Amino acid sequence: MGYPTQEKLAYLHDLEKALQSIEGCSSVTLPFLDQTSAETLKNGLPWIFTQQKVILDDGSEIDNPLLHYKLQTALADTALIDGYDYSKPEGYQTVRYPLSGLSGTEEDKKSAEEHNKQFDYDKQVTLLNSNVRNWLTSQQTAVADKYYQCLQAPNYTVFSNTTSAGKWNKDHTGAPLIIPLENPHNWMHLCIGGFTDSKDGSVRDPIVYTVGSNGDMGENETAAFDPIFFFHHCWIDLVFWKWQQLHGATTLFDIQQGYPGTNTSDTGVQVNADQNEDEELNIDSPLHPFINQATGALYTTRDVINIENLGYSFGPNSLDSFQLPTDDQQADSLKGAVVLKKRLEVRGINRAYIKGSFIIAQYEIIDGEKQYVGAVPILSRWNVQMCENCQYHLDVQAYFEVENLEGVPSDKRVFQTQCVTRYGTQNLPSVFRTESYSYEDYSCQILD
Ligand SMILES: [Cu+2]
Questions:
Q1: What number is the ipTM of this complex?
Q2: Boundaries of each Tyrosinase copper-binding domain copy (predicted)?
Q3: How far is the CA of 241 from the centre of ligand 1 (A)?
């Protein structure tokens, strides 16, 4: 995702305005997919996303437009390297976990067809819902908790993006780990888009699998074609607003100049097509290509900080009752963090060599046993190498909390990093299928 303010305009404000411009639809508003509600945590997705048919007010029955979207025109993959082709033909219907939507080559089409045959409609819905539930609630991924954690990010800069949060986590090794909004956002893309944490709903070691499922929500090239995308992003915008309310930032906040993640050339920053390299991002940076109809100028972050100025608000939701921990609670958890936890840094994973989104799964080997530390979702694309705007932003970093092992020096501890990719799980350092890169920059170490 880009900066949350850009998403607000890109996907939500303009879309809502467009919907309202249709005759008879002037009161239409975009709903959000509440991802921490008791209902979602218990049942998975609301039925409106999975039902095959819907009945309209006049009694007529139509295909559910929120189940999938049919491409109006072909999507051409322009970087046919390594035998991978992410093209999708005109008329292609978007799919979600557990289905595969790969259709670039005849071979892909055939294997996707074979794969998809395993799941009748009921099975698809059951698996998708259990996947959503598992990612949100399982101890290993705890995505619902990650939403609560990101609300505690101390300032907008580190809340808004992974690179800035990484810098903060590197500099504050004695404090609890900061989770940027991008983290749970990415998890849900990957969850609906084809990564699963369990082959049969019970086995959870190792934590993550790809099982031939390739849903559209899981890749940047196609995510916005799945209708659920907008409901997900509306929720992300809601979490953003909640953060603003909790931190007294509903009318103004700051982007810390010079902080990693605030310049378009910084590692990990995904720039917009109209932005230049080495451009400082501040609240007055233009949000290409969104024009403020009232002024005729490009929107800036400052224009959209207060959503009430944009003319919308959010209905009742499960975060209404969420409160920041008190100072006492914070002091307690800080004490615990200093004594019990150490910060582990993983860096030097170059996403140019990994086709598609992936998960960094981190383990520690203790007494010969592989123990799960945590995982970080990387929402990427099949064609990083051909994506001009991705070229400066390839080095992926991840930060984890690990136990402080009494009497064991940090450099004697043994860690193992895995990349769970669309085409298998590989231990680092290793050579990916491009065979042109050997992860010589990869490192995994405790920051003492
Ligand atoms: Cu997104």
A1: 0.99
A2: 226-237
A3: 16
